[in-house]
Amino acid sequence: MKLNKSISAIFLGVVLATALGCASTSTKEGTGEYVDDTVITTKVKAAIFNEPSLKSSEINVETFKGAVQLSGFVKYQADINKAVNIARSVSGVTSVKNDMRLK
C-alpha cells in the first residue's frame, strides 16, 4: 500500500512538472500559443506572397502571442503600407509591429 502511494506521488509530480513546463509566461509561449503563432505566421506569409506587388522574399514575418512583427527592406513606402494592412487583415493577429525599412 505504501509503495502504491509513493508511485502515485511520483507520477503526480512528473505530470505536474510536465504541465508547468508547457505553461506560458510573459516572455515564453505555451505549446498551444506556439502552434497558434506558427499558423498566424504562415497565414501572413501566404497573404503577402499572394500579393503580386510585394516581393515576399524581402519581408520577414515573426509572431509572438498574436503580435506580428514585419521586418526587411523594400523599395517603396507603399509596399510597407500594403504589407502592414495585409498582416492586420489576417485572423488571429492582435497587433502589427512594422520594422521594415526602405532600401
Describe the secondary structure blueprint for this structure.
Blueprint: H1 2-21, H2 31-49, E1 59-64, E2 67-74, H3 77-89, E3 95-102
Parallel strand pairs: 2-3
Antiparallel strand pairs: 1-2
Can you walk me through this structure?
This protein has helices spanning 2-21, 31-49, 77-89, and strands at residues 59-64, 67-74, 95-102. It has 103 residues and is of the alpha+beta class. It has a single domain, classed as 2-Layer Sandwich (Histidine-containing Protein, Chain: A). Strands 1-2-3 form a three-stranded mixed beta sheet. A hairpin with a 2-residue loop joins β1 and β2. The radius of gyration is 21 Å and the shape is rod-shaped.
- Strand and helix order: HHEEHE
Q: Classify the helix fraction into a percent range.
A: 40-55%
Per CATH, the architecture is 2-Layer Sandwich
CATH fold field value = Histidine-containing Protein, Chain: A
